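Deviations from the work plan: none for this task. Representative record:
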Amino acid sequence: NAGVMQNPRHLVRRRGQEARLRCSPMKGHSHVYWYRQLPEEGLKFMVYLQKENIIDESGMPKERFSAEFPKEGPSILRIQQVVRGDSAAYFCASSPAGGPENIQYFGAGTRLSVL
Amino acid sequence: RKEVEQDPGPFNVPEGATVAFNCTYSNSASQSFFWYRQDCRKEPKLLMSVYSSGNEDGRFTAQLNRASQYISLLIRDSKLSDSATYLCAVNRGATNKLIFGTGTLLAVQP
């Protein structure tokens, strides 16, 4: 009964490169959320997706960031032309349904370091 | 003003102590409430959901006060293993996103 799986666990990129973070939700879960945790700060919502649909991307920076959750395969958070300020822990969560009472379960996160 | 606010701590308590954390939220449309625990450099893990009637799980008790817009977490008989950051989270329900407080750091001393 695997939980939310994220990979890679650690990712090092140089400024200007692209970062791709992957998230496979828990079995039976079709709702995926991405959160970012900057050093010494709280978790900030980025985007909420269902299969093939972006439901809420109000927390995504306007440029360089995109997310998808295709019909087959994991959800991907893509950061183009990374900058040092993108260094953070990126957590993915999933839930079985979309109501507010549904618990979101978190993956172990991807720690992005931009050199 | 942040939508969800917590005292950052740290709370340094001896083993066996009782400790209480509060969290306030500003949006009265908030629908569901949670406490998560986060160990250093790990993911948040759900501790408990919070209901108006209050709920208890072993040494942990959570309470919601909608009129005053705060939630609380009480830990009785603290253990060394309780040392962690405790995050409160609020779901406004419109699009399911969780709004987190910045967390309260608890350090239980031997």
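Chain B touches chain A at residues 31-32, 34, 41-46, 49, 87, 91-93, 95-103 (CB under 8 Å).
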